[in-house]
Amino acid sequence: MTPATYPPPPPDSAPDGRTSLVDVSVPGRAPDAFDLLRRGWDDQVGTTIPIPPSRPVGGGDYRIRIRHSEVADAVVEDIYSEAIVGGTGGRFNHLNGRVVLHVVHGGTWDFTRAGGKGGTVVAPAGRFVARYNDPPWEFGIGPRTTSQVLILPAAELRPHLGDGHVDGPTDAPALRLLLAYLDTLDSVLDSLSPGGVRAARGALLELAKGVLTEGVDGDEPRFAPALVRAARQLADERLADPGLAPRVLAAELNISVRTLHRVFAGDGDGESVMAYVRRRRLERALGDLASSPSRLSVSEAAARWSFSDGSHLIRACRRAYGLPPAAYAQELRTGQEPRTGREPRAGDGERSAP
After folding, report:
1. pLDDT band for position 16 (cuts 50, 70, 90)
2. What's phi and psi for 324, nearest 5 deg?
3. Partners of 81 in beta bridges
4. 297 vs 289: CA distance, rounded Å
């Protein structure tokens, strides 16, 4: 039998750090698979990340990798897992009394009340499920599943769940905002002071509450960076839509247009909502002109990225970069640093279609 492999802990998994990593593999069909998994797990992280009673399924090797970040008494985990089944909460003695939110990006999670009490909740890619974890649940993870899992104190969240669950799509407005906040938090967590961590924990719980109730207080100032990030991500997904406008973004994020404009104004770079949209459309159009094998015309690139016509794209490029689109794209194509007349400013660019 091939021996199980236990990679050494990475440098960021020190016991007093905010982030740690577990990465364990066990051979397929090993009769003592759970013991091997637990031993490798304990060797890497001890009890920092509790392991549920579980067993790999299928004939191949089993691997699980978890990036574990602590935000005071809340935990955020990025998980990759091969197929496994197990139990959590209640008599399984795993994460009792916590609210657990699973956001599935690939593969699938499913949950069934232990003892056959209730149906099965399935969360495939593009869905989330939040549960109170004290009654016991049996779970299954499909092959090659990637997910984000939030393990949260229950006091403020359980009133919105009872002993049940909430599930929905990952593009729900409140969840978009939560995911944008997690991206921001990940980039600054290691540099936060203890007071900053406590504040981050409070914002995390408020955003999770918004997911459970499908509403977030957009006037709460500590959510402004996450709102801006979520709005930019949403705008990037819809740049080719000629109907893209602040009211569309605000409606998708379940906030007012006034709040959307206010958080952009307070973001520090002086770029309005539509200035961001125009800049990103210009970047996409110029990128297409530089990279398209079929060599799009200026008019075709303008139509693709919702400029009203080719002359508007030409004016936007000249205003932003001091060059016409063909010249700018040619320099991008040849790997040169474009010789622009000046650096682009926030709000530069001809207004594209609203």
Report:
1. very low
2. -75, 160
3. 64, 145
4. 7
Per-chain mean pLDDT for the chain:
83
Rounded CA separation 78/211 (Å)? 19
Distance, C-alpha 331 to centroid of its chain: 34
Q: Over the stretch 335-352, which tens digit does the pLDDT of each residue have?
A: 665 554 444 444 444 444
| Angstrom distances, CA of residue 20 to CA of 64, 150, 280 | 14, 15, 36
Instruction: Record the tokens describing residue 119, joined without a space.
Output: 């149906």
| Whether the Cβ atoms of residue 82 and residue 58 lie closer than 8 Å to each other | yes
Tokens of 148: 């984000």
Kindly report the three-state secondary structure assignment for every residue of 71-105.
ECCEEEEEEEECCEEEEECHHHCCCCCEEEEEEEE
- Residue 104 in tokens: 């599935």
Chain Cα centroid distance, residue 247: 23
Task: Using DSSP, state whether 271 is helix, strand or coil.
Answer: coil
Amino acid (1-letter code) at residue 27: P
Non-local (6+) Cβ contacts of 217 within 8 A are 206, 210, 223
Here the contacts of 188-193 (C-beta below 8 Å, separation 24 or greater) are 189/18, 189/19, 189/69, 189/71, 190/17, 190/18, 190/19
First to last CA, the chain: 64
Q: Is the pTM of the predicted complex or chain greater than 0.90? A: no
Whether residue 65 has pLDDT greater than 90: yes
How would you class 342 by CB atoms within 10 Å of its CB: exposed for 0-12, middle for 13-18, buried for 19 or more?
Answer: exposed
Q: Which of 182, 227, 201 is nearest to 77 (CA)?
A: 182
Q: 115-127 as b/e, with b when 16 or more CB fall inside 10 Å?
A: eeeeeebbbeeeb
3 state DSSP class of 258: helix
d(CA 81, CA 346): 43
Q: 97: which 2 tokens?
A: 């009394």
- Taking only the tens place, the pLDDT of each residue in 125-156 is 999 999 999 889 999 999 999 999 999 999 88
Please check whether residue 48 is in contact with residue 17, taking contact to mean a CB–CB distance below 8 angstroms. Answer: no
